[in-house]
Amino acid sequence: MSADAGIAQRSFTHDRHLVGMALFIASESTFFLGIVVAYIVLRDQGMATAKTQLDVGRTAIFSLLLFSSSATMAVASARRDRLWLAATALLGAAFLTGQGLEYARLLRAGIRPGTELFGTAFFTLTGLHGLHVLVGLVLLGALFLAATLRPRRIGPVAWESIGLYWHFVDSVWLVVFTVVYLGTLVG
Amino acid sequence: MTAGVPAVMRRPAFVTAGLLSTVDHKDIGVLYVLLGLVFFVLGGLEALLIRIQLATPGAHILDPETYDQIFTMHGTTMIFLMAIPLLVGIANYMVPLMIGAEDVAFPRLNALSFWLTLFGGLLLYWSFLAGGAPDAGWFAYAPLTEPAHAIGSGIDYYIFGLAVSGAGTIIAAINFAVTILLMRCPGMSVGRMPQFVWMVLITSVLILGAYPMLTSDLVMLLVDRQLGGRFFDPSGGGNATLWQHLFWLFGHPEVYIVILPAFGMISEIVPVFSGKPLFGYAYMAASGVAIGFLSFGVYAHHMFAVGLGDAQNAFFSLTSMLIAVPTGVKVFNWLATMWRGHVRLEVPMLFALGFIATFVIGGLTGVSLAVVPIDLYVEDTQYLVGHFHYVLFGGTVMASFAGLYYWFPKVTGRLLDRQLGLAHFWLTLAGVTLAFLPLHWLGIQGMPRRVWTYPAGLGWEWSNLVSTIGAFVLAAGTIALLANLIRSLRTGESAGDDPWDGFTLEWTTSSPPPAHNFDRPPVVRGRRPLWDRKHPDRMDPA
Asked: For residues B169 and B112, is the Cβ–Cβ distance under 8 A?
């Protein structure tokens, strides 16, 4: 979408994409709130398994990669720089790889969504978050492609709104990591 | 017109040929309303089946399994596929016109919303052909929905149908909110927006806070059913009450999602047909906001019988009573608007008056249900069914009818027939009373809801028979409505641009409006722009 000519020409009209993205993120927050609440309500029943099976240290390192990708995204968005965008995508992909390793280890230990309550809650919450990271990676890739092929048509709003989504995905992980992983240290 | 708003210039027409590919908010609004009416008829037929089965004791017209499917589909249809599409459709058509915009903020997403809602509905109804519809009630309490207890695929269709149509509703809410926040015409400050626009804005916020909660509940249920999960399965350490909490965290705001736009329509219609500005405009908007906030804090009044504890029950009892205060503000403001006005009893106004009368009854029985001991006595009885049909049929549906008669001339250029409209109104008012008032008695006498049949000799025969007769009276009213719609579309009296001597911007453009809505960009300086234009000597204070 290029220039907008509503009934009234107003300078902030083009920001509707940013406001729309913010509202979409609000709805996504409600969605994750439901899943996180469910995890917390059911936490005690799965705590024993969580304490023995989860690898807090390694996941913390991969989490740091994801959190730092928010910083690279901020730089990428501010400078509209494809290199920083690629760095963001790489950090995100590294995080997903870490999740894959964690999943593989749990599956080898015989923990599945259907085997016990911990498996149900853990795979649902982290899986839904992982799906969102994956969608974020697709968006980053699309932005990278578009910025390469049609640099003139990609305005700052595209960078900002995709950046907004990426920051959201990161902040959801902040909550999930706290509840799921750090929770095993104190609970 | 630009690439940003891909609505091509089209002839002003009620229904254009390219409905399948349209991105015009007016076409999509019409599609939504038609969808709502189709499902109103389907859900109504299901209601008739329920009432036929219950008309006499010991009846065997439906077998118990089918009966469970029918009442589940009736409720699910009326909430998600009738009320939401009707209101979203009317808002889709009217909100851009009322704020002087040329379309919604995201026309393509708007089309996506509609098609998602339609396909969600088709998915839900496909269950009938795929081995059986969902049968656990519209709120699908666990563990009835767990794989061990719901063997067929009905619940899976429920999950996907509601998730898909819900995604459409979430996108619609984003669209409405951005449109109202960013696309108002010059002079249309927030304090000058029509009340209907106010209520749609609040409703959109409620949708964003409520519908995704349902989606997360549905996703967890899907994990339980398809991946062997244990979320809601107490035998596997899960928590069946969790489903109720999350469902009603969606479900109670949902009640206000389907009533606030109805309030908004009444707040448009009552002033026009009273020839006066709305009484207490700011209080009307503020009470809507108050209802919106409170709606998230009352949900556990659906769960008094669960045994949450006295403190929780007392809290939710108090908040539920509290919500009657802003609602009462609205009712009194409508009455004050009519006070000493020149009230014209046209059909839209009759429906608005019918709405106020029946909604107040439903609202009062609602307050009675907020009292924990009363609720425990009538919990899951026909009393509850009577209550929410008064607010949903007497409220949401009556107001939607009012809106339909009010805005049909704008959409089609023709007036709906007054005689058929009067028949529709009186049949509806009589039908609501006959069908739903006796349910209160039945509930107090102890008749549970959702029972397939009942034995003779309990004193329930007459009330059930009267209620069934009422259901058929409502069906007759609906036939009058459909006949009116079809006939007036072809032969109705020409309406002109402003048939009701209206106040708001939609009446300043042609009927039906051109594709770009307004030939000249509107500029407003008050809450009643058309009144100002017609009465330059007596303009509203700016």
From this structure: no
B146: closest CA of chain A, how far (Å): 13
Q: Using pLDDT thresholds of 50, 70 and 90, give the confidence band for residue A7.
A: very low
Report whether pLDDT(B66) > 70: yes
Question: Distance between CA B19 and CA B10 in Å, rounded?
Answer: 12
pTM, to two decimals: 0.94
Q: Is A185 on the interface with B (CB under 8 A)?
A: no
Closest-approach residue (CA) in chain A for B207: A27
Q: How far is CA B277 from CA A6, B195, B331, B508, in A?
A: 29, 12, 15, 18
Q: How far apart are CA B387 and CA B378, in angstroms?
A: 11
* Binary contact (B229, A8; C-beta < 8 A): no
Q: How many of the other CB atoms lie within 10 Å of CB of A97?
A: 12
| CB nearest A113 (choices: B178, B216, B229) | B229
User: How distant, in Å, are the alpha carbons of A119, A126, B193, B195 from that of B190?
Assistant: 49, 41, 5, 10
Residue with tokens 């924990």: B372
Q: What is the pLDDT of residue B540?
A: 84
> Residue with structure tokens 């009186």?
B426
Of the CATH numbers 1.20.210.10, 1.10.10.10, 2.60.260.20, 3.30.450.40, which one belongs to the domain with range B25-538?
1.20.210.10
What ipTM was predicted for this assembly?
0.92
Which tokens hold the place of B378? 């009538």
Domains of chain A: 16-186 (1.20.120.80)
